[in-house]
Design a protein that fits this description.
about 675 residues, alpha+beta, Leucine-rich repeat, LRR (right-handed beta-alpha superhelix), Methylamine Dehydrogenase, Chain H, 3 domains, 6-stranded mixed sheet, cytoplasm, nucleus, kinetochore
Length: about 675
């Protein structure tokens, strides 16, 4: 039931009223209102409303049909608004405030200045002069650029007599090309510019060719199964336009053909006979390539196919109500890192939402946490914070919604290989470094001026460089696992102990290539599939182990530096390559394991038929290697006519619901697949 009733509206009117149509000023602040509470049928009766206060609520957007024809003043401070375009339904609006909506940026300011022709005050500032520039000068410049792009690259592609299909194809290619290549103004306004460019381009097509302005429901970047890519090179189309700014410069590299992927396990390699039995399973898993992005280029160079991409992690949803439930605690936004930059990407649209650069850095790892921060008026609010680290041994702390890197921690004197936050202590960050140490930091909580204090809580001493770290799900405040250059180790990280610097508590031994057991091997992949099953990849070619934490490690055992035999549950069949640092990941909610290979392919293992047996106390090891459920083959990508070859998949990560699969490569390409 909606929180807003006729009685409430009459009571909150200023002054109180007896009829809705007589209300001119209405205060609906501090009512915990959500978007669904704004009933258009009820609001349509407020025909003479001129001032509306919706501050200090939980609104994430406006319904499109509130029908307030006389609204002049609107206060939306301290909400969760993500979009402002619905405000165009209030054409008489003169004063608008939406401060402390952390998802809104400078781009949104420019959008409302364009959409609301009568707007004079925005967040308390007179914007009359700037708004006139946005509506006139900016629009004139962009219209000129869009028209020139059409005339130069697309007008002659239409024959004198054209079919509806030809028109549709040209429209699709033009809208994609013009948004990529027409730029104007500072890079911080790139989102606004793309928004206006698309609007102007659609108007141009409608006027020139009488084309329908409606957009296809599917992503404009997606192609039909056998659709050939445009012969136009993005580089050619960009010759006559300005250079793209740092914030938004990225290239979309498109496969020459895109087909529904039903790759059979083992294709192209000699594998065990058991792979034939998984063919039916493979048909159940289909994934479409959505986007191929080149957004980490050094110096924004379109020629950069050498920058290595290393780490990606999906952003958690704010106020999801259950952070521990992975199904409801992740968005479709992913943070990726490689080279000198960290990018935030919308997986559905392929849009690079934000980009952070440090010219002297090479980023190796990123991790998210959600901090409850104090904002104005001593109120508390949750914000997502991104930690990024790499070659310089420094952790950068980024308040993403505010577009602000508010601090750094000089964590190590040597490069940081990986970072991760504690799932139970929001300010606790682990950093694993080439100095053969893993440090635990309390990053603190920044105040409203972004002052913060970080402190080191613990140092874990390793015998070799730690490459991957994982907190034990059943006791994340007590034990940490690390895959290192010289083996797999466990540490007691409980903070009630006085010892600040600690040696490892256990080292795990696994089957060696000679048939015996060994502790000495490089572990470059490590993750938990569920509360007990560990997935690790060692230097033994073609093998990924699944083993039981609880049956291997006795938490009541005494003494440090024990050698423990890992209780193997199964082996996964993988590439025979001896290349290192092609890491793995898991999707616990769906019982999936993912690992890329040296040929650009992604090996996917659906282990839901095995996990129940493994959780049994008497669960036995699988007798044979488990083949992949499916192998996603790297598509044929071309840049300026040349095929991209020798693609290594350094990392592959799915969101918790296994809707999107993000693949990071050695050739500066981020590939995004979507499960059908």
């Amino acid at each position: 039931m909606s929180k807003i009733t006729t009685e409430l509206l009459l009571e909150r009117a200023v002054p109180r009223s007896t009829r809705l149509r007589k209300i001119e000023t209405l205060n609906l602040s501090k009512l915990q209102l959500k978007t669904g509470d704004l009933d258009p049928r009820l609001f349509s009766r407020l025909r003479h409303l001129q001032k509306l206060d919706l501050s200090d609520n939980l609104l994430d957007k406006f319904p499109n049909s509130l029908t307030l024809p006389d609204l002049r003043v609107l206060n939306c401070n301290n909400n969760k608004l993500e979009d402002v375009t619905a405000l165009k339904q209030f054409p008489l609006l003169e004063e608008l405030t939406y401060e402390n909506n952390v998802y809104l940026t400078l781009n949104d300011d420019y959008k409302v200045m364009f959409l609301l022709q009568n707007l004079r005050l925005l967040n308390g500032k007179d914007i009359t002069k700037l708004a006139n520039h946005v509506r006139r000068v900016n629009s004139r410049k962009l219209t000129s650029k869009v028209t020139a792009h059409w005339e130069k690259f697309f007008r002659d592609q239409l024959p004198e007599k054209y079919t509806a299909e030809q028109v549709k194809s040209i429209k699709k290619k033009f809208l994609k090309s013009v948004q990529t290549n027409v730029v104007y103004g500072p890079s911080s306004l790139s989102e606004f510019t793309r928004w206006r460019v698309k609007m102007i381009a659609e108007e141009l097509l409608a006027c020139s060719l009488g084309l329908d302005l409606s957009t296809d429901p599917e992503s404009e970047e997606m192609m039909d199964e056998n659709e050939e890519e445009s012969t136009e090179s993005p580089r050619e189309a960009a010759e006559d336009v300005d250079q793209v700014g740092d914030f938004s410069s990225y290239v979309t590299v498109t496969p020459s053909k895109r087909k529904r992927n039903h790759s059979k396990p083992g294709s192209g390699n000699k594998r065990s006979k058991t792979q034939a039995n998984t063919e039916e399973e493979a048909e159940d898993v289909s994934a479409e390539p959505l986007h191929f992005l080149q957004c980490h280029s050094k110096g924004n160079s379109r020629e950069d196919f050498k920058t290595q991409l290393w780490s990606c992690v999906f952003e958690p949803l704010l106020d999801c109500g259950a952070r521990k439930d992975p199904i409801v605690s992740s968005s479709r936004t992913v943070a990726t890192c490689g080279g000198e930059s960290v990018c935030l990407i919308d997986c559905e649209t392929g849009t690079v939402l934000k980009k952070y650069k440090v010219a002297t850095e090479e980023f190796f790892s990123v991790a998210w946490t959600t901090l409850t921060m104090v904002i104005s008026d001593s109120r508390k609010k949750s914000h997502n914070i991104l930690a990024a680290a790499g070659r310089r041994g420094i952790v950068k702390l980024i308040h993403v919604a505010a577009d602000f890197c508010y601090g750094e921690i000089k964590a190590h004197k040597k490069p940081i290989a990986t970072v991760c936050f504690s799932p139970t202590q929001e300010t606790h960050l682990f950093t694993a470094s080439y100095d053969k140490r893993i440090a635990l930091w309390d990053i603190g909580i920044p105040d409203c001026d972004y002052n913060f204090k970080a402190s080191q809580l613990l140092v874990l001493e390793a015998l070799s460089i730690p490459l991957r770290i994982a907190l034990v799900p059943t006791c994340p405040d007590q034990y940490l696992l690390a895959g290192c250059e010289g083996g797999c180790f466990a540490w007691n990280i409980k903070l009630d102990k006085e010892q600040k610097s600690r040696p490892f508590e256990a080292i795990f031994q696994f089957p060696g290539e000679d048939g015996g057991m060994t502790t000495s091997h490089r572990v470059d992949g490590l993750a938990f599939l569920n509360d007990d099953v560990v997935v690790s990849k060692s230097s033994k070619p073609g093998c990924i182990y699944l083993w039981s934490w609880s049956r291997s490690f006795d938490t009541k055992g005494k003494g440090c530096q024990r050698t423990i035999t890992a209780v193997i549950l199964a082996e996964l069949e993988w590439s025979p390559t001896d290349l290192s640092y092609l890491t793995l990941s898991t999707c616990p909610a769906k019982d999936y394991v993912f690992c890329g290979d040296e040929k650009g392919s992604v090996w996917m293992y659906n282990l839901s038929n095995y996990t129940t047996a493994w959780t049994s106390a008497k669960g036995k090891r699988s007798d044979r290697r488990i083949p992949p459920t499916q192998i996603l083959k790297w598509p044929e990508l071309r840049d300026n006519g040349e095929q991209l070859t020798e693609v290594l998949v350094n990392n592959v990560v799915s969101d918790p619901t296994f809707t999107y699969l993000v693949v990071l490569t050695s050739v500066n390409i981020t590939a995004i697949w979507k499960k059908s």
